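Summary for the steering committee. One of the milestones for this cycle was to obtain a three-dimensional model of the protein with flavin mononucleotide bound, which we needed before selecting residues for the alanine scan. The sequence and ligand used are listed below.
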Amino acid sequence: MKDNSMLLSPFYGPLNLKNKVVMAPMTRSRATQDHIPTEIMTTYYGERAVSAGLIITEGTAPSANGVGYPRIPGMYNREQVSEWKKVTAAVHANHSKIFVQLMHTGRVSHPANIPEGSEIVAPSAIAPSTTKMYVDGEGELEIPIPKEMTTEDISQAINEFVTASKNAVEAGFDGVEIHGANGYLLDQFINPNTNQRTDEYGGSTENRARIVLEIVEKTIAAIGAEKVGIRFSPNGALNDVGPFENQKETFDYLTEKLNGLGLAYIHLVNHASMGAPSLPDDIRISIREKFKGILILSGGYDKDSAENDLQNEKGDLVAFGRPFIANPDLIERWKRDAGLNEPNMSLLYTPGAKGYINYPSL
Ligand SMILES: Cc1cc2nc3c(=O)[nH]c(=O)nc-3n(C[C@H](O)[C@H](O)[C@H](O)COP(=O)(O)O)c2cc1C
């Protein structure tokens, strides 16, 4: 790689990163069955911090209702906060920064996966049509119809994000990424296919965006605007949300409001490289024009395409997902033009160190 690479040169400004390489959020299901971070997670993130200027963690539940999947970590109890401290310390020791992705799964869940006393909630009582949910010991199961949230449930979910954000700061995180993408709770509200409410949280663009903006506003009030980012996947199809009619208008509205709130960053997902519909160019360009904060691009990048998009000012930072799975020393490999290890896809979500922290460095 050339020495004058934009990708590898520092990113100055409020985030102050050693380079413009972001590790994308990736669920790896290596927490305990009680959703507590583990020692191997500290090793995994600590090693990748040598390369990435900014790490965004795997989707992390802001509350017991938001857990959805087996063995994903949470940010809603003391033990989780205390174990996350080890992860953030390991990342900071290697001069990287780390945001936690707060992911409330909403209807993408299963009763067997959520802690006792919690419930599966969503904007409307509509189950995903094709998505199944993995349950340990049972395999892929049908997802039941979720409970339609009451106004109190919505206030509770908003507060859960705010409390989890405060917990995250206490755990040493540099900030939080609100998961507004990929068909999870907030995307379920944004999308009229999954939000058929007739109250102030459904119907018009303003109403479908309301919960997102309330969460962002309250989180910013609690921990500061420079510590809050959001992820969106316009035109995304993951978890059976699917495209809808006035998508551009919806994301334009959200962007204008988020810009007004001084949000640190918007992180855009393009899942075209994963065989899903692509992020429309007009939406990406419009967000870039309207949003004065940091724009993170993600989806199918290698070092050359990332460099190219940065040179063309399409975004400020580029996130890499799959390349980080099997390459703890990703940047060193790029610099030496060495080949990349291929991830073992059958071990993506399995418990233990194998397929997680046993990929070789150069
Ligand atoms: C194993 C795996 C787990 C993922 N988990 C998450 C997640 O928890 N949250 C999220 O927003 N995206 C998740 N993604 C999507 C990635 O963040 C990224 O957008 C996607 O992999 C495309 O980028 P890439 O081509 O660089 O891999 C996941 C992807 C993979 C491969």
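Key point for the committee: The CA atoms of residues 35 and 73 lie 4 Å apart.
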